[in-house]
Design a protein that fits this description.
The complex is a heterodimer of chains A (220) and B (100). Chain A is mainly α and 220 residues long. Chain A contains six helices and no strands. In chain A, 76% of the residues lie in helices and 0% in strands. The chains are: A mainly alpha (220), B mainly alpha (100).
């Protein structure tokens, strides 16, 4: 990734310098985009299951959705959007060669990611206390217990898979921040920052769809 | 050209403020008496937020055609997955009978 030979083979026109590492940034980013498109299909399968069951039991889904904590869900959405802003500013700092802002925004992204998981943990513990986890001890006040169980299965599957992705993202960011602290990234070489940024924003986009589909099914 | 260092910081901040306004809008819509229109609004807002993140934060608008084709292909496959699944279940004679 040092800007010369292997990374710049994607450019036919450039001779050296300026243009070649910009092209290599896009070439390297395409690898991450390709991986993310496979993730789209991974989450897409669960969303497809969601669509089928919501269409089959619209009233039960509305009622069950009101058992989720909209305040904490909205707060977490705001936290995640803010973390994405910090991630975007990290890439911007790296591209401009500003090493201190780079580390600052990476650490801010990590802390907001940890805050998201903290809020999610509080939500999960409330739901476990109310026996809403679709295990052997599932209890649900309304009618149509089995269909409500289906909603909570989808809720825990989607948010659980999302939380695992968040955890992986945080671990990647910790390594990235450590390397950034040693001055590993600069204007000529920040593809790693951009690629992990792409992953982080993708996980944000998944949440952008999870939030209304689980927390905002019916009128409140 | 994708020289990301030339993007001003305020672009990211404006996009972020737009995302927060959309979030407030989607939560507020949940309390409005608009019936089934509700689903259209929340999903519409979610798509708008996703497009903002993908174009600006993920820099897709600064990328060349090859990356745009790659991403469009992924979205197209997702739409095919959802469309065929939906058509399958909607056209079954006895779809998803209520469990005991």
């Amino acid at each position: 990734m040092t800007g010369t030979s292997p990374a710049s083979y994607g450019s036919r026109t450039s001779i050296q310098g300026e243009d070649s590492h910009h092209l290599s940034l896009e070439t390297q980013s395409m690898g991450m985009w390709l991986f993310l498109m496979s993730e789209v299909m991974f989450f897409g399968a669960v969303f497809a299951a969601y669509i089928v069951y919501r269409h089959a039991y619209p009233r039960v889904f509305e009622e069950a959705s009101n058992h989720l904590d909209l305040v904490l869900g909205s707060l977490n959405t705001a936290i995640l959007l803010t973390s994405s802003l910090c991630m975007a500013l990290s890439v911007n700092a790296a591209a401009r060669g500003l090493s201190r802002p780079l580390v600052f925004f990476l650490v801010a992204t990590i802390l907001l990611g940890v805050a998201f998981l903290g809020v999610k943990f509080i939500e999960y513990s409330h739901e476990f206390d109310q026996h809403l986890f679709p295990g052997g001890d599932f209890r649900y006040g309304g009618a149509n217990v089995e269909q409500a169980k289906l909603f909570f299965s989808l809720y825990f599957t989607l948010t659980g898979l999302h939380a695992v992705h968040m955890l992986i993202g945080i671990l990647l960011l910790v390594v990235l921040a450590g390397l950034a602290g040693r001055g590993s990234y600069g204007p000529g070489d920040y593809a790693a920052v951009e690629m992990i940024g792409l992953y982080w924003h993708f996980v944000d986009v998944v949440w952008i769809f999870i939030f209304p589909l689980l927390y905002l099914v019916g009128p409140r | 050209m994708n020289d990301l260092s030339r993007i001003p910081r305020r672009t990211y901040v404006f996009v972020y403020l737009g995302l927060i306004v959309l979030l407030a809008g989607t939560v507020a819509a949940a309390y409005l008496p608009i019936g089934s229109f509700h689903l259209v609004i929340t999903v519409g807002i979610a798509i708008a937020k996703a497009v903002l993140v993908i174009l600006f934060f993920m820099h897709l608008r600064h990328m060349r055609e090859r990356t745009i084709f790659l991403v469009s292909g992924g979205v197209l496959l997702l739409l095919i997955l959802i469309a065929l699944t939906t058509v399958d279940y909607l056209t079954r004679a006895n779809s998803l009978s209520i469990m005991p």
